[in-house]
Protein backbone atom coordinates (compact mmCIF):
# COMPACT_ATOMS: atom_id res chain seq x y z
CA UNK A 1 0.00 0.00 0.00
CA UNK A 2 1.47 3.35 -0.97
CA UNK A 3 2.35 5.93 1.66
CA UNK A 4 -0.28 8.65 2.06
CA UNK A 5 0.93 12.21 1.71
CA UNK A 6 0.12 14.79 4.38
CA UNK A 7 -2.92 16.31 2.67
CA UNK A 8 -4.31 12.87 1.83
CA UNK A 9 -4.00 11.83 5.48
CA UNK A 10 -5.99 14.89 6.55
CA UNK A 11 -8.73 14.17 4.00
CA UNK A 12 -8.90 10.52 5.04
CA UNK A 13 -8.99 11.28 8.75
CA UNK A 14 -11.70 13.92 8.39
CA UNK A 15 -13.83 12.22 5.76
CA UNK A 16 -16.61 11.05 8.07
CA UNK A 17 -16.76 14.43 9.79
CA UNK A 18 -16.91 16.16 6.42
CA UNK A 19 -19.70 13.88 5.21
CA UNK A 20 -21.69 14.56 8.37
CA UNK A 21 -21.20 18.30 7.91
CA UNK A 22 -22.31 18.13 4.27
CA UNK A 23 -25.37 16.06 5.15
CA UNK A 24 -26.47 18.61 7.75
CA UNK A 25 -25.55 21.67 5.66
CA UNK A 26 -29.12 22.56 4.68
CA UNK A 27 -31.38 24.03 7.37
CA UNK A 28 -34.94 22.69 7.54
CA UNK A 29 -38.12 24.67 8.18
CA UNK A 30 -41.07 23.93 10.47
CA UNK A 31 -42.97 21.87 7.89
CA UNK A 32 -40.03 19.54 7.32
CA UNK A 33 -39.37 19.21 11.05
CA UNK A 34 -43.07 18.40 11.62
CA UNK A 35 -42.97 15.71 8.92
CA UNK A 36 -39.78 14.26 10.43
CA UNK A 37 -41.39 14.14 13.87
CA UNK A 38 -44.37 12.23 12.47
CA UNK A 39 -42.01 9.75 10.79
CA UNK A 40 -40.07 9.31 14.02
CA UNK A 41 -43.29 8.74 15.98
CA UNK A 42 -44.31 6.05 13.48
CA UNK A 43 -40.88 4.40 13.49
CA UNK A 44 -40.34 5.25 9.82
CA UNK A 45 -37.03 6.28 8.26
CA UNK A 46 -36.97 9.54 6.32
CA UNK A 47 -34.39 10.98 3.97
CA UNK A 48 -31.58 12.98 5.52
CA UNK A 49 -31.34 16.74 4.93
CA UNK A 50 -28.43 16.11 2.58
CA UNK A 51 -30.40 13.57 0.57
CA UNK A 52 -33.40 15.88 0.48
CA UNK A 53 -31.28 18.79 -0.70
CA UNK A 54 -29.76 16.61 -3.44
CA UNK A 55 -33.24 15.59 -4.63
CA UNK A 56 -34.35 19.23 -4.63
CA UNK A 57 -31.28 20.23 -6.66
CA UNK A 58 -31.82 17.42 -9.16
CA UNK A 59 -35.51 18.29 -9.59
CA UNK A 60 -34.60 21.92 -10.17
CA UNK A 61 -31.80 21.06 -12.59
CA UNK A 62 -34.19 18.87 -14.59
CA UNK A 63 -36.79 21.67 -14.53
CA UNK A 64 -39.10 18.88 -13.43
CA UNK A 65 -42.81 19.22 -14.08
CA UNK A 66 -43.78 15.59 -13.42
CA UNK A 67 -42.13 13.50 -10.68
CA UNK A 68 -43.08 10.02 -9.45
CA UNK A 69 -42.18 8.96 -5.92
CA UNK A 70 -42.24 5.40 -4.57
CA UNK A 71 -42.68 5.65 -0.80
CA UNK A 72 -44.56 8.74 0.40
CA UNK A 73 -43.74 8.26 4.06
CA UNK A 74 -44.83 11.35 5.97
CA UNK A 75 -43.79 13.76 3.24
CA UNK A 76 -40.17 14.69 3.97
CA UNK A 77 -38.78 13.72 0.57
CA UNK A 78 -41.93 15.01 -1.14
CA UNK A 79 -41.43 18.51 0.25
CA UNK A 80 -37.86 18.60 -1.04
CA UNK A 81 -38.94 17.36 -4.47
CA UNK A 82 -41.76 19.90 -4.70
CA UNK A 83 -39.40 22.72 -3.70
CA UNK A 84 -37.17 21.85 -6.66
CA UNK A 85 -39.92 21.32 -9.19
CA UNK A 86 -41.51 23.93 -11.45
CA UNK A 87 -44.30 25.98 -9.82
CA UNK A 88 -46.84 24.12 -11.97
CA UNK A 89 -45.25 20.71 -11.37
CA UNK A 90 -47.14 17.73 -9.97
CA UNK A 91 -45.70 15.07 -7.68
CA UNK A 92 -47.30 11.63 -8.01
CA UNK A 93 -46.53 9.73 -4.82
CA UNK A 94 -47.31 6.09 -4.06
CA UNK A 95 -47.44 4.37 -0.68
CA UNK A 96 -48.96 1.21 0.77
CA UNK A 97 -50.23 3.06 3.86
CA UNK A 98 -52.92 5.74 3.25
CA UNK A 99 -52.53 7.08 6.80
CA UNK A 100 -48.94 8.04 6.05
CA UNK A 101 -50.15 9.95 3.02
CA UNK A 102 -52.53 11.91 5.26
CA UNK A 103 -49.53 13.13 7.24
CA UNK A 104 -47.80 14.03 3.97
CA UNK A 105 -50.84 16.03 2.82
CA UNK A 106 -50.71 18.05 6.05
CA UNK A 107 -46.97 18.58 5.66
CA UNK A 108 -47.34 19.75 2.06
CA UNK A 109 -50.03 22.24 3.08
CA UNK A 110 -47.85 23.51 5.94
CA UNK A 111 -45.01 23.97 3.44
CA UNK A 112 -47.29 26.19 1.33
CA UNK A 113 -48.05 23.86 -1.58
CA UNK A 114 -51.50 23.91 -3.15
CA UNK A 115 -53.51 20.70 -3.06
CA UNK A 116 -53.22 20.20 -6.82
CA UNK A 117 -49.42 19.99 -6.63
CA UNK A 118 -49.50 16.37 -5.42
CA UNK A 119 -51.39 13.26 -6.49
CA UNK A 120 -51.55 10.61 -3.77
CA UNK A 121 -52.05 7.00 -4.84
CA UNK A 122 -52.35 4.35 -2.13
CA UNK A 123 -51.22 0.87 -3.10
CA UNK A 124 -48.27 -1.38 -3.87
CA UNK A 125 -45.84 0.38 -6.18
CA UNK A 126 -45.62 -2.47 -8.67
CA UNK A 127 -49.40 -2.45 -9.01
CA UNK A 128 -49.57 1.33 -9.47
CA UNK A 129 -46.56 2.11 -11.66
CA UNK A 130 -47.77 0.16 -14.73
CA UNK A 131 -50.79 2.49 -14.83
CA UNK A 132 -48.62 5.62 -15.19
CA UNK A 133 -47.84 7.11 -18.60
CA UNK A 134 -44.85 5.98 -20.66
CA UNK A 135 -42.23 8.72 -20.96
CA UNK A 136 -44.34 11.07 -18.88
CA UNK A 137 -41.93 11.82 -16.02
CA UNK A 138 -38.84 13.94 -15.53
CA UNK A 139 -37.69 12.21 -12.34
CA UNK A 140 -38.55 9.00 -10.49
CA UNK A 141 -37.52 8.70 -6.83
CA UNK A 142 -37.48 5.18 -5.39
CA UNK A 143 -37.62 4.74 -1.61
CA UNK A 144 -39.58 1.51 -1.32
CA UNK A 145 -38.98 -2.20 -0.78
CA UNK A 146 -35.33 -3.01 -1.53
CA UNK A 147 -36.34 -6.47 -2.75
CA UNK A 148 -38.31 -4.77 -5.54
CA UNK A 149 -35.61 -2.28 -6.57
CA UNK A 150 -34.81 -3.96 -9.91
CA UNK A 151 -38.50 -3.92 -10.80
CA UNK A 152 -38.61 -0.22 -9.87
CA UNK A 153 -35.69 0.37 -12.22
CA UNK A 154 -37.46 -1.36 -15.10
CA UNK A 155 -40.62 0.67 -14.53
CA UNK A 156 -38.62 3.88 -14.17
CA UNK A 157 -36.95 3.40 -17.54
CA UNK A 158 -40.38 3.14 -19.09
CA UNK A 159 -41.76 6.15 -17.20
CA UNK A 160 -38.85 8.54 -17.81
CA UNK A 161 -38.46 10.85 -20.77
CA UNK A 162 -35.02 10.87 -22.43
CA UNK A 163 -32.79 12.93 -20.15
CA UNK A 164 -34.93 12.11 -17.11
CA UNK A 165 -33.50 10.99 -13.77
CA UNK A 166 -34.01 7.95 -11.59
CA UNK A 167 -32.84 8.02 -7.96
CA UNK A 168 -32.66 5.25 -5.35
CA UNK A 169 -32.43 6.01 -1.62
CA UNK A 170 -30.65 3.80 0.93
CA UNK A 171 -28.24 1.94 -1.35
CA UNK A 172 -25.56 1.83 1.37
CA UNK A 173 -27.98 -0.24 3.50
CA UNK A 174 -26.34 1.01 6.71
CA UNK A 175 -22.93 -0.09 5.44
CA UNK A 176 -24.00 -3.64 4.62
CA UNK A 177 -23.70 -3.15 0.85
CA UNK A 178 -19.90 -3.05 1.09
CA UNK A 179 -19.59 -5.45 4.04
CA UNK A 180 -17.95 -8.75 3.05
CA UNK A 181 -19.95 -10.72 5.63
CA UNK A 182 -23.00 -12.75 4.58
CA UNK A 183 -25.94 -10.42 3.91
CA UNK A 184 -29.72 -10.80 3.61
CA UNK A 185 -31.54 -10.97 0.28
CA UNK A 186 -32.42 -7.26 0.26
CA UNK A 187 -28.75 -6.26 0.41
CA UNK A 188 -27.85 -8.72 -2.34
CA UNK A 189 -30.61 -7.17 -4.44
CA UNK A 190 -29.19 -3.68 -3.87
CA UNK A 191 -25.78 -4.90 -5.00
CA UNK A 192 -27.41 -6.26 -8.15
CA UNK A 193 -29.13 -2.91 -8.68
CA UNK A 194 -25.81 -1.07 -8.41
CA UNK A 195 -24.17 -3.40 -10.94
CA UNK A 196 -27.10 -3.15 -13.32
CA UNK A 197 -27.18 0.65 -13.24
CA UNK A 198 -23.42 0.97 -13.55
CA UNK A 199 -23.24 -1.39 -16.53
CA UNK A 200 -26.35 -0.15 -18.35
CA UNK A 201 -25.76 1.47 -21.73
CA UNK A 202 -29.04 3.33 -21.27
CA UNK A 203 -28.03 5.15 -18.09
CA UNK A 204 -25.39 7.66 -16.99
CA UNK A 205 -24.96 6.98 -13.24
CA UNK A 206 -23.44 8.42 -10.09
CA UNK A 207 -23.51 7.41 -6.43
CA UNK A 208 -23.82 10.27 -3.94
CA UNK A 209 -22.55 9.76 -0.36
CA UNK A 210 -25.46 11.56 1.32
CA UNK A 211 -27.72 10.01 3.93
CA UNK A 212 -27.69 6.24 3.45
CA UNK A 213 -26.49 6.53 -0.14
CA UNK A 214 -28.31 8.04 -3.13
CA UNK A 215 -27.90 6.27 -6.46
CA UNK A 216 -28.80 8.55 -9.38
CA UNK A 217 -28.79 8.00 -13.13
CA UNK A 218 -29.83 9.94 -16.21
CA UNK A 219 -31.67 8.09 -18.95
CA UNK A 220 -29.73 8.75 -22.11
CA UNK A 221 -31.58 10.28 -25.06
TrEMBL record:
Keyword set, alphabetical order: Methyltransferase, S-adenosyl-L-methionine, Transferase
PROSITE patterns linked: SAM_OMT_I
InterPro entries recorded: Cation-dep_OMT, SAM-dependent_MTases_sf, SAM_O-MeTrfase
Gene Ontology BP terms: methylation
EC number(s) per entry: 2.1.1.-
Origin superkingdom: Bacteria
Annotated GO MF terms: methyltransferase activity
Name the record gives this protein: O-methyltransferase
Organism: Streptomyces lavendulocolor
